[in-house]
Amino acid sequence: MAEKIYRIAYFTVDWNYELVENTLHGLKQYVDEHRNIRLRIFDCFGKDLDNAKDRSEYTIFSLPDLSKFDGAILLSNQIILRRVREQLIRRINESGIPAVTVGCPLPGCVLVAHDNRAAQREIANHVIREHNARRLVYLTGIINNDSPEAQQRLDGFLDACRENRLPPENFRVLNKTWRTSDGLETARTYVKEGRALPDAFICANDEMALGMINGLQEYGIHVPDDVIVTGYDNLESGQLSFPRLSSVSCDYHKLNYQAMDVLMGMLQGKETPPVVNVNYDLVFSESCGCRDAARPGLIRDRYFRQTRFLRSFYTLQDQLAEELFEANNLVDLTNAVLHNRAIFGCNDIFLCFNDYYYDNYEKNEWTQNSESYGRYMVLANRNFMRFPTHQLLPESCLSKERFLIIYPLHYNTYSIGYIALDGISEAAKMNLHESIFSFLEIAIENIRKKELLRRFNEMLDDLYVHDGLTGLYNRFGYERFAPELRERLLKEYGSIQVLFMDVDDMKEINDSFGHDLGDTALRAMARLLKSNCEEGTFIMRYGGDEFVIISSGKPADLKDRILSAVDDYNRSSGMPFQLNISIGLVRTTARENRSLGDCVREADSRMYQIKTAKKVGR
């Protein structure tokens, strides 16, 4: 009996790049160890601003048809926008599939998390009890978005203050947003406004703590001698900072490996508690005064590893950028992406375009919401194969891919499509993946604009050589194409014929029936000429009511066919006017080698003689 395959959808945001990179490796390890899992990770670079760019990023969460999956996991503490979380969990609950949330409780989901409150209480207790800090300032994360991590960490800080009987005037809470700039600007404000520094700044994450240390150092304030600073998350940047940051170590690799294991247990019918706790570690180091510095060997190793990576990355990025911006069409661009797959850190790359984007470069031709995905996608890798969007990829591609990360591609507010990768690039850890995709998005948009410009130039060129009323060639078209045609016809057929035609009594038609019907007569004449000439014949409006045809000498009855067609038109058109034409005909051979100008002038002269004879005969 074949082993059951489980299809898992995972949702995250590259908001804190190092944590997400650790997350991806935890997921990859689990998939590598469990061959019956097909994991599809929907990742983006959305922030918490809910602006047009954020909305375009979060569109990737609407991509999967959840009825095609067996279970779902949300790294919900990274999906900061409440609206996005609510929409996503509503879709998951409506689908009826079991779900696990990491870090942030959500309705209908098992929660896998570490104890934020306890961890923050312990680090605050350490600062108060071991380092005798009595005056504290706490920098929160985002409190008002229903993501409880920020509130839990704040509660842990307040617990420590109560346990140690700190009077309320001894501690202060500043509502912040997790960003490095929060810590930086808080430090600058304290110094510029001459505020007394507390004994310790306790920050809800490492990003704010590192910003705080940098801001204090700008003004010569030493950590921890002048003030203690602590963080939370134990990022590598905090481990390598000077002083090394005291923090809470939350192993996101282990946390998400555990989340996968919990979900698989649910899918296999195992009893699962509503909350599964994962252990954390406390890191007491230099920034709180514990003097536990990073080992010099570790710093040196990571420095050289990072330096080598960056040197390689920027070389690859330059090569990718050059090939992308030299691409003239989507085939060139796709080849450039595949040729530079090393920068993406994977073996397989799947570049998918919205069908309405691929089919219509003109945005006004898009009949649906340009921020969404269409019913069909176009896979560029396989000769631009179309497939239903709900499949994510054609089944022939999807069935062999056990691990895929899918990122949105968009330009400004409209969706281009998405890119799927089968591996994890080290660039993700250093916030460089976003720049790669930005290059790609700009290059795709440049191709769209190049194509629009090419079409516009073709249209202008067409208008330049064609008569606006009849669509026939004009004098510019004659100068560009007629001499070359003469040479080709003489070479292939040995002879050419030139017909010079004039519509008789054109002035009388205009005077009697108006210029609109006069234009109708000229357009009718043009249609008759085109319908009675062979493909490749040169037909032009020479000027006013005069027309010229340059053809091979092969159709000997061309003049008679045209006169007969005019008679048929007059019998059946129902128009109040009669079309009458005079035609002068000249034939010449390659041996005679007469110029085209001579032939046109002689045909014009013969036409004039016929026209004069008609007037005399009236």
Q: Any overview of this molecule?
A:
The chain has 618 residues and is α/β, with parallel strands linked by helices. Among the domains are: 116-249, Rossmann fold, CATH 3.40.50.2300; 466-617, 2-Layer Sandwich (Alpha-Beta Plaits). The protein is built from 19 helices and 21 strands. It has helices at residues 17-33, 52-58, 82-95, 116-131, 148-163, 180-192, 206-218, 236-239, 252-267, 296-326, 330-339, 355-359, 395-398, 433-465, 475-493, 506-513, 515-531, 558-572, 596-617, and strands spanning 6-11, 37-42, 71-74, 99-102, 110-113, 136-139, 171-174, 200-203, 228-230, 247-249, 275-277, 281-283, 349-354, 376-379, 385-388, 403-411, 414-421, 495-503, 538-543, 546-552, 581-589. The strands form 4 sheets. An 11-stranded mixed beta sheet has the order 11-5-4-3-1-2-16-17-13-14-15. α4 runs parallel beside α5 (148-163) and α10 packs antiparallel against α11 (330-339). The model has no long low-confidence stretch (mean pLDDT 89).
Search tags:
single chain; 618 residues; alpha/beta; Rossmann fold; 11-stranded mixed beta sheet; 19 helices; elongated
SSE topology sketch:
Blueprint: E1 6-11, H1 17-33, E2 37-42, H2 52-58, E3 71-74, H3 82-95, E4 99-102, E5 110-113, H4 116-131, E6 136-139, H5 148-163, E7 171-174, H6 180-192, E8 200-203, H7 206-218, E9 228-230, H8 236-239, E10 247-249, H9 252-267, E11 275-277, E12 281-283, H10 296-326, H11 330-339, E13 349-354, H12 355-359, E14 376-379, E15 385-388, H13 395-398, E16 403-411, E17 414-421, H14 433-465, H15 475-493, E18 495-503, H16 506-513, H17 515-531, E19 538-543, E20 546-552, H18 558-572, E21 581-589, H19 596-617
Parallel strand pairs: 1-2, 1-3, 2-16, 3-4, 4-5, 5-11, 6-7, 6-8, 8-9
Antiparallel strand pairs: 10-12, 13-14, 13-17, 14-15, 16-17, 18-20, 18-21, 19-20
Helix pairs in contact: 1-9, 4-5, 6-7, 10-11, 10-14, 16-17
